[in-house]
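Researcher: Here's a chain I'd like modeled. Treat it as a single chain, no partners, no ligands.
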Amino acid sequence: MRLLLDAHALLWWLADDPALSRDARDLIADPTNEVIVSAATVWEIAIKRAIGKLDAPDGLAAALERSGFIEAPVTAADAERAGGLEAIHRDPFDRMMVAQAGRLRAIVVTRDPIFVLYGTETVPA
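Model: Modeled as a single isolated chain. Structure tokens:
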């Protein structure tokens, strides 16, 4: 199974935060699953951290590598698809995740209900 982590799921995983559901935690920990983090998610966290909107660890890229997570770059095709999505949701980072989840055939680990409105499969974070 391929899992694409939303920002909150990633941060909860890295912090071993009990807010992350047991099901999501088990899926992420399962070595038979591919766990993917979008470069856009790292960018989103960095921006929100810089403006004081959230607390996130230093060295996020290194933390991803230590966790064995796969980094998903943003491609031109991802950008084109995200930009062309129906305007159900305006958050550009979430729209990018919808586009990447489709390209990667991944299930998004999130608590955000907006993904389902785009037909994206999710696992509750």
